[in-house]
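Course assignment 3, question 2. Fill in each field.
Student: A.L.
Task: Predict the tertiary structure for the chain below.
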Amino acid sequence: MTPEIIWFVYLLLIIAVIIALIRVGKLTGPGEHPPARTCPVCGSDLAQGETLFADEIRKNEKESELRIKGCPHCYKKGGQKT
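Answer field:
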């Protein structure tokens, strides 16, 4: 065999191995679950669809910050903590 054919076969082998590794990674996935969502105020676990109550405070045109008030478990919509 000529050196060109050997390099070509070697290159095809490397490409096949890379494709196989990519497919195995896609099939198995990272195996991690999304992180649990908890309220930073009271520590309650938030179910899907439960959101935090917060106010946006504008510092200037480009900067703002959020002031988290709580979740449905620790903060009522009327503005009172439970």
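Instructor remarks: The first strand starts at residue 53 and ends at 58. Residues 14 and 60 are 55 Å apart (CA to CA).
Grade: pending
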